[in-house]
Design brief:
Layout: H1 2-7, E1 11-13, H2 18-21, E2 24-26, E3 29-36, E4 41-48, E5 51-58, E6 63-64, H3 75-95, E7 96-98, H4 104-117, E8 130-135, E9 142-150, E10 161-168, H5 173-176, E11 181-182, E12 192-196, H6 203-217
Antiparallel strand pairs: 1-7, 2-3, 3-4, 4-5, 5-6, 8-9, 9-10, 10-12, 11-12
Helix pairs in contact: 4-6
Length: about 220
């Protein structure tokens, strides 16, 4: 459900809060359902390995109500959306915590950068669609730049967005060709590499790259 994707963006689950809230645990997954609109619809929420999914089921037909995901809707669907949103927001408030970035790995790396270098991410005000900047606390040079962009090298009409961490790594063609690492967005930034934050690389591999970028920021 697109509404759920929007409501829970930049939030991660607190698993210890799910069962007390009313979620049922089955293996590694947690399930919650609530009837809305006088019992005519059943909002079903699933949390599994930090990922959340939601479906709106029309009870009379036992089928997913697809109209809830349409961008242009009438007053009936608008009312349903409001009811769904109220439930989802309550779950978010009581079972999730707000994060700085969208992707789980980006937030883990941000925590590691904070622990290792004492650097907090800053909001970027340059208008480049950037989620945050990590600056060297002494020189104020960029150590890393997080951007939320359409996935690179994807064929077709996919609009999927992912987070990338831009790092100062100077010229190293071998690493440029490594899976999960891309050329910079602009050729004039040839000394930077772009790392996808979708667990293609391990946290340790990324932090090794961050260490090089931090070293460069000291110069």
């Amino acid at each position: 459900m697109k509404l759920a994707d929007e409501v829970f963006k930049k939030h991660t689950v607190r698993k210890d809060a799910l069962v007390p809230y009313g979620f049922k645990k089955d293996g590694d997954a947690y399930f919650f359902s609530q009837l809305i609109h006088n019992g005519e619809f059943n909002l079903q929420v699933t949390v599994n390995v930090q990922k959340l999914g939601a479906r709106l089921i029309e009870v009379a037909f036992d089928e997913e109500y697809a109209a809830i995901n349409r961008p242009v809707v009438g007053s009936f669907v608008s009312e349903l959306k409001k009811e769904c949103e109220a439930v989802l927001l309550d779950i978010r408030e009581k079972c999730f915590k707000e994060e700085y970035f969208v992707f789980a790995q980006t937030n883990r790396i941000a925590d590691l950068i904070r622990e290792t270098y004492g650097i907090e991410p800053e909001r970027n005000k340059d208008g480049f669609g950037t989620n945050g900047v990590f600056r060297n606390p002494v020189t104020r040079k960029w150590v890393g730049l997080v951007m939320y962009k359409k996935r690179l090298n994807v064929t077709g009409d996919s609009d999927e967005k992912v987070e990338y961490l831009n790092l100062n790594f100077k010229q190293d063609a071998e690493r440029y060709n490594q899976k999960g690492i891309y050329h910079p967005y602009k050729k004039r930034n040839k000394h930077w590499i772009v790392v996808i934050m979708d667990d293609t690389l391990s946290d340790k591999e990324i932090m090794d790259l961050v260490a090089v970028s931090y070293e460069k920021s000291n110069l």
